[in-house]
Sequence to fold (90 residues):
Amino acid sequence: MTKADLVDVVAKKANLTAKAAREAVGAVFGAVTDALKKGDKVVVTGFGTFMVRSRKARTGRNPQTGAAINIAARKTPGFTAGKALKKVVR
Fold:
């Protein structure tokens, strides 16, 4: 499902215009992005939790030369599915 497909589904289910649904979906994703940028968790009960995860610095290998390279520590977005979502998917 693409973002455009999601906008169409929201428009139909919430009885909104396409423009209003596009703005609503954009607002939700924007709010999640802003919260993660601050380092906050976003908990959507019954769906899951979006969070920032930290990856440690590590040594890797260049696949072309085989030389060892240092990979810096960084933060990545993460998602953990909630109980209800896991149950529906099974």
Summary: The beta strands are 42-44, 48-55, 58-61, 68-71, 74-81. The longest helix spans residues 18-38. The mean pLDDT is 95. Residues 3-89 form a domain with the HU Protein; Chain A fold (CATH 4.10.520.10).
